[in-house]
Amino acid sequence: MEGYANQDREIFSRSIKAGKRWYFIDVKSTKTDDYYVVITESKKHIESDGRFTYTKHRIFLYKEDFEAFKESLDEVMDFVLKERPDTLGQNPNLETEHIKPPTSEKAPIVEKKDNFNADFSFDDL
Fold it and tell me: pLDDT: is 17 or 7 the higher one?
């Protein structure tokens, strides 16, 4: 999609490496300076010819849904930790990368070079 990188602005980001997967949690801003969260799972695959490709799954989370999403996620995670406490902290492939938010009021536009093709427009946000 032409102009994709200029249609949203990355404000704040966290990334987590877990084996062949990366999880990205990004705060982005629309043209009208409204914030939303994008959660992306990116998984590396090796094709039969030896090339690497990535499969991406994205969730767009808007402010009006934050509280219900957070409550449900906390409830599910608490359930898992209560029922299976033996699995806590056992992922040796887990790494996190913290990206600090920009210091200015207006965040710079960040261009990301990826192969993501969207079937929607950020003008709809």
Answer: 17
